[in-house]
Design a protein that fits this description.
This protein is an alpha+beta fold. The protein is 29% helix and 31% strand. It contains 7 helices and 10 strands. Strands 1, 2, 3, 4, 5, 6, 7, 8, 9 and 10 form a 10-stranded antiparallel β-sheet that branches. The chain is globular. Homodimer.
Length: 221
């Protein structure tokens, strides 16, 4: 199948978005925005992204470590509190193996249309099984069946083979009203060792406010 030509190197180098307070209609991010804590501001920013119509405003780029090398992928944040950011996955997936070997991660929420980002990094722990059970019970049945069907991150011959596995699982649980949580599936929480709020501004003099060790401080861009 043919494809249109993409941008050349000169075009790529020239790609640029100009940020400004006038453009985003928002005052300058400052330390006092965190007077009620980082969680309150984070929740507000996700809400702003949702109201702006941004697709999957709770999506984050999660970075883990594999043999000393970074690996990233997008996952969905499913909860936040003072203890950190929670997401769910297959514990036998690539990210699960990486977190078992190096239980530390970072995540970035890029809300490009708003000219904002949020970053968190810290140690990672599995959530209590009761937390997993509560979230699992609220997932669509199709997503539950998919979690049982997929050996996440492992090779498979074709999509047809994957759909065949789904059909097998669907038949297995056809008469089961409440599908159980797979034994290798659950949640992780990234503790807020460091969090940072970023707001784009003109001349690349962006606003960056970091919380580390209980201190709220402005960083140079």
């Amino acid at each position: 199948m043919g494809a249109m030509a993409g941008p050349d190197s000169e075009h790529l180098a020239a790609m640029r978005v100009e940020y400004s307070a006038e453009k985003d209609g928002c005052p300058d991010l400052d330390a006092d925005w965190l007077d009620d804590g980082w969680v309150a501001l984070f929740r507000k920013w996700i809400g702003d992204a949702e109201r702006a119509g941004i697709a999957e405003p709770n999506a984050m780029v999660l970075a883990t470590v594999d043999a000393g090398r970074p690996v990233t992928r997008s996952v969905l944040c499913k909860d936040v509190d003072e203890g950190g950011i929670t997401f769910f996955t297959n514990y036998d997936s690539a990210k699960g193996a990486e977190l078992a070997a190096t239980p530390y991660a970072s995540a970035t929420f890029p809300w490009y249309q708003l000219g904002r980002q949020f970053h968190i990094r810290g140690p990672v722990t599995k959530v209590d099984p009761r937390v997993t059970e509560d979230y699992w019970s609220k997932r669509p049945r199709g997503s539950q069946l998919g979690a049982w069907a997929s050996q996440q991150s492992h090779p498979i011959a074709s999509r047809a083979a994957l759909l065949a596995r789904l059909a097998e699982v669907s038949a297995r649980f056809a008469d089961v009203e409440r599908i159980p949580v797979p034994p290798n599936w659950g949640g992780y929480r990234i503790a807020p060792e460091v969090v940072e709020f970023w707001q784009g501004r003109e001349n690349r003099l962006h606003n960056r406010i970091r919380v580390i060790g209980g201190r709220v401080e402005r960083l140079q861009p």
